[in-house]
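#struct-help
A.M.: can someone run this one for me? Single chain, 264 residues.
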Amino acid sequence: MVTEGSMHVVAINRWKEVSPELIQALAAVLGITAFEARPRMIGTGPAVVASFADKEMALALAKKLDQIGFATLIVDAVAIRARAGQFVVRRFQCNKWSLLVEASSGQQEEIPYEEIDLFLPGTSIVGTSETRTVTERTFSIGKTLLSGGIPMTSKVEHQEDITAEERGKVLYLYSGKRPTIVFSQNGMTYDGFGAAMKLSRELNFAHLINELRRLCPGAGYDDRLLNRAGQARLLGPTLPPETNLDLAAEILARSHRHGETEAT
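D.P.: on it. Structure tokens below:
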């Protein structure tokens, strides 16, 4: 069934051993070459292999992949991009036994450290582009001749495309069945540190991660989303990291936290 605005992403997750036969089997199911299939199997996954508007098509592909030896995950990318079910932190406080987080709306959540089970740090990469009118002065032969040899210039305008890339760290925190807690380096205040607050957002964010890992020694930690190469390896060739970090984190979290095929 196709739901308006839906996109169901299929990822392979965990396989015993990479062999020419398994690569060929994956290529046959996906309708691609073995050369194209091989990069999807670097490491132990997860890795996105396809996406469908029709959920039934995603389920059918997942079934075929299961039959040849892959665990699979199915995630609704549109729901994830809408940040459905996420708690985005505006400020926080590390208490003795629990973490207190607060959203911009004032909503608060208190999470015992012992219930936190996974941390996924990542790097948000946002590209911007704008067109500016640039004015320059250039030497004018005509004006110089008319002035009797005095060097003269003319004003020339042209359009110039300016591109920039803004990066910022993000931390996804998982605790049981609670909503995903999302910390953004550039979207929070750090006064919860009190006297321990650092001089920059970058230093404060690094301190937050170190402090939470110290307070939650039993929680898992996976840093493959910190660089673009790791994000691209997970998301595959058709999903750009710039707009799919939340999706990559959701897929990676399910890979860590659940062993069965999932659909949402």
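A.M.: thanks! The chain has three domains: 1-82+224-264, 85-132+162-221, 133-161.
D.P.: also worth noting: The CA atoms of residues 90 and 188 lie 5 Å apart.
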